[in-house]
């Protein structure tokens, strides 16, 4: 039976809502006994109440209702024509949300002492009347008023509005004595040391924004010390020490009743920042050669090959976390021929996490003695090397059948190629891939100068 009645109520609401223009108030509140509101409409207008539990009544039958439990219920209060709801009162009824945006001629609204988070009166245009609004002691973080609406009075203290909201709202109120803007307290915020809180939008008000806001910071009830406990710059605040703080903002350009001065209060619980455990690198470079593979913070082993003529390189590394430490960078000691292994160690801020990046620097080998050069064309009667200069093909005439190893070096003594042969009287080598220039040929320990054209 209850489900059937609920279906009829929903059907009635949807049908009437889509049939013609109406004034509608929608609210959500906690159930219980003697839930009530007060409503005034234009003469001879009818109001229907859908109580959210399947019950539907005419407002003339009463605006009080009792629920069988305390769960949340959504109530729709429907007037059979537009521009008919003029006054609505629902103070202290455990209301969680209230929508009066469809009541365009509402000029008296009392909704104080509830848990309402936002209130939209942007469609309200009271015409010849002022809007009487009492919405204090809620959780309002948004209160929107039609730009053509004049308020008389406005009570909105003990909510969660910003100074910038109070500045706009206060400008719509006739007479300072009718403005009870009062204290606004935002929810407590949890921070860590070093976090930036941006209240720059609350920093200046008044004509041309010439009036600065006073920012007062206390720590456990006593004055906090600037540049010791916190810093502030143009409304941006950074807490430097872990503790509990209270920030109070006031601005003399925002006027209000003397007993209800406009102020914004925020409590901060500032905790020590947990040390970072990041022990990775953001970059790793060498002054000579190329890292293989390309650097990636997750890759820990690298190889670099350099020429024989290079005896030192510079290793540069940057940690991902600026508070991590990096050791093992800078100028290397003199490099030996072959593999030289260097370890770059990153220690995270927490000092317990470390990570090693390994660079193997391979310095090319050379054993050539360029101070003892023999004639390339002939060495005794046993060996002929020709032609010289050559464009690519090099012939070695080996009558004694003793040659086994041939090596080619560049002008600075770095080995470029090495060949091994079975004993043969005639050896041919192709060096066409080499660039034009001077090279050295070592044949079984004897070094000869070679010109490649």
Proportion of strand residues: 35-45%
Number of domains: 4
How many angstroms does the end-to-end distance come to? 107 Å
Give a short account of the largest sheet. 6 strands, mixed
Radius of gyration: 43 Å
Give a verbal description of the structure:
The protein is built from two helices and 42 strands. The strands form eleven sheets. It has a six-stranded mixed sheet, with no helix packed on it. With 453 residues, it is mainly beta. Helix content is 6%, strand content 43%. The protein is elongated. It starts with a helix and ends with a strand. It has four domains: 2-149, no CATH class; 189-271, Immunoglobulins (Immunoglobulin-like, Sandwich); 281-363, Sandwich (Immunoglobulin-like), CATH 2.60.40; 373-452, Immunoglobulin-like.
Topology:
Blueprint: H1 2-19, E1 23-30, E2 35-36, E3 38-41, E4 47-50, E5 56-58, E6 64-65, E7 72-79, E8 85-89, E9 95-99, E10 108-110, E11 118-121, E12 131-134, E13 142-145, E14 151-155, H2 163-170, E15 179-180, E16 183-185, E17 189-192, E18 196-198, E19 204-205, E20 211-212, E21 214-219, E22 222-223, E23 230-233, E24 236-239, E25 243-250, E26 263-271, E27 281-286, E28 301-306, E29 314-319, E30 325-327, E31 330-331, E32 338-347, E33 354-363, E34 373-374, E35 378-379, E36 383-386, E37 393-398, E38 405-409, E39 415-420, E40 426-430, E41 437-443, E42 446-452
Parallel strand pairs: 8-10, 10-12, 11-13, 12-14, 14-15, 16-26, 17-26, 28-33, 34-42
Antiparallel strand pairs: 1-7, 1-9, 2-6, 3-8, 4-5, 4-7, 18-24, 19-20, 21-22, 21-25, 23-24, 25-26, 27-29, 29-31, 30-32, 32-33, 35-36, 36-37, 37-40, 38-39, 38-41, 41-42
